[in-house]
What we know:
The chain is α+β, with helices and mostly antiparallel strands. It has helices at residues 54-64, 83-102, 105-108, 152-159, 182-198, 322-345, 383-396, 473-487, 498-507, 524-535, 554-563, 606-611; strands at 5-8, 21-27, 35-36, 38-41, 45-46, 48-52, 70-78, 115-121, 127-132, 140-143, 145-148, 160-176, 203-209, 221-224, 263-264, 268-269, 271-278, 301-317, 356-361, 370-375, 448-451, 539-544, 568-572, 575-584, 591-596, 615-618, 635-640. Helix 1 packs across helix 2 (83-102) and helix 5 packs antiparallel against helix 6 (322-345). The two termini are 50 Å apart. Residues 243-249 and 416-428 have low confidence and may be disordered.
Amino acid sequence: MEQTSIRVLCPKLLIIRNGSGLQWLIGSPFFPQFTILSTFACIHTLGDSTSPDYNKESEDLRTLLLRGFHIIGALVVGSKCDLERVAGEAADASRRVRKFLYGNEYGGKSGKQDLIGAIADSESGEIRFFVSRGENPTGLESVNSIIYEDDSGKYVWDTGCLLHCELPIKLPLYFSVNSPSDAGETCLRATEAIIAKLKDSAVTYVVETLTETSAEAPGPVILHGAELDFHADLSDVKHFGDNTQGSLAKSFPCSYFCSKNRVVLPFSVEVIQVSLLLNKSRNSAKFAAPVAEYFPASEQTKVIVVDYKLEVLCYAAKDLPVTYAVAQLVVPGLVDQLNSIKSTILPNLLTQNLQLHPCHFCPPGFLHPIQVIYELSFGETEMKQVEVRRSLHLRLGLPFDRPLLRIANALNLSMTKDSAKSNSIRKGSSLLRDVHVGIPSSGVSGGLVSLVQGSYEYHHYLQDGFDDSGWGCAYRSLQTIVSWFRCQHYSSIEVPSHREIQQALVEIGDKDPSFIGSREWIGAIELSFVLDKLLGVSCKVVNVRSGAELPEKCRELAFHFENQGTPIMIGGGVLAYTLLGVDYNESSGDCAFLILDPHYTGNDDLKKIVNGGWCGWKKAVDSRGKNFFLHDKFYNLLLPQRPDMV
């Protein structure tokens, strides 16, 4: 008998990142059995943290999980206990939530699957895995063979691809003004009619590659509803390469549409576009003229229009026939999203015009996208939306001081053939980003490197056709800092120009009106005022009496980069720099500063910038005995504080 193994794709420590309680183990029907892709914390419970509210949990999970991923077990994090009993309860919980999620899908097999039950010690982090077999769910099999994949992202995206489908629907609802309660029933019937249309024989699905624009790109393939099997069991579908014959030969594998130009999500992945069309002009043996019919209302009637903006992503194995990918993944995904939006709209159908927006995200630590539906009538900062994001951070084990699930972070897959020439799906400026990545080491022996966290843009002299040489270095450092807050999506404000920076200082009363348009220097204090006014960001200012004292601040600077992660502005005399990190050996006191120099006046040539030392490690005293920081000048260091927000 072959030994049972459990394969873990998510990093080992992330599997227990959510603390005590119950976690759902996520896998895929396209992976080998018992392959764990990620974990979602159970956040809806009935008193006990390990007793799920299955109704609420299944509603959330149905939205979050893309079709092509599913629950394969559960893990309980806690103190030492009866391992087999608790693991059995975890497996049973996963079996029950699967019934709520999938019902009679998979041929009614959802309650008969082999599932994982696991228990993790919250103190030691040790994890014990068990398997509950579908034919004998009360018996547990201990599993000792655990495989942790080294290159999990490559494993996931060499195996599969994404299918993307957008479907905007405007649904007019007519109801009697004397019976407004009929509007809800009308909406239900109309939504059910849409669901039926998705599986109609007259519906047409156009499948094509998303990013390839060359003449060698595969042409689109048209699938008719009459050719699709919407009732097949995905677990029984034979893939290409399985020596299959017959009807499969008339189809194409998903890999047929996978181009060489992958989309960066941040992982590299192939995306297939699926578009839906409805054939209204069927061929007929009889000739007939167009007919318009008029049905007058018998009483005074009101109309409201419901906007369904559907956008789904699905994960499919590349060797899966595309007919089954559409019928068993894309269409059920559209139905799930339609039902989720309908359930949210119905209670407030007549009183609120809800703006429901499906978004997809790839949070840090996850190898696959998740799906969220936001209600944006009052904007992202409205407290209700903040609480929604906070609960998502809790479920996904994300930090509560990072805006990781704001719309600015969402994946943008709404690409046309003409706009697909770029591999990146994110909008961005033409400025260089993250120029410190890949530079030579500092030369500090045994040092601990602490760096800026996240991305930033390099702002320096003479950019944007503006001559600020000799006076604008602090302005440019401020622009780099503001770009960091933009890149991390704490703010959508544009990077301010020199004039806008000066205008802000005049508006708060720090400067006279004559300051606007001048070439006067600014320092750390002025930068803190501008960051507070424009971004609401507070700052800590550190003073040193001489450049010779800066190495004494290395421990404090390292703490800042480890905990806040924002770029630091250093101002001394008439010069200002941006500090991106420190390399510090606490035992020897040896240290180096990663400096981004705004005094650079050339073009944005990364090689020239790095080789010229405009971005690089600087020691307080170099090998020739030259001091980088002046001993006869005092320095102010501006340490922007990361906002505590989601």
